[in-house]
Specification:
This protein has one domain. Helix content is 80%, strand content 0%. Helix 2 packs across helix 3. The model has no long low-confidence stretch (mean pLDDT 91).
Length: 86
């Protein structure tokens, strides 16, 4: 498939006329790219939700409910330090 796209690129560079089969290959490539982008968007949306619903509220809590640096560090350690499993 990669060779097909290289050949298509060469045709376009040389301003050759594309064939119907070339457009079929371009369509297949467009579907693949579209699906990959959609998967990336879904993963990025999950990351944003994680920030919005987990990380940001926890950091805000550390800031809003700490009266000293030591207290903030203690709260942050309780919230963010992963406990090792026994």
């Amino acid at each position: 498939m990669r060779d097909d796209y290289i050949a298509l690129g060469d045709k376009l560079k040389e301003e050759q006329e594309l064939e119907k089969a070339d457009y079929t290959k371009l369509l297949a490539g467009a579907y693949i790219v579209s699906n990959n982008l959609n998967d990336k968007i879904i993963n990025m949306q999950k990351a944003v939700r994680g920030y919005d619903t987990d990380l940001i509220p926890k950091l805000k809590d550390v800031i809003d409910n700490s009266t000293s640096n030591a207290e903030a560090n203690n709260k942050a350690n309780i919230i963010f330090v992963t406990k090792k499993e026994n």
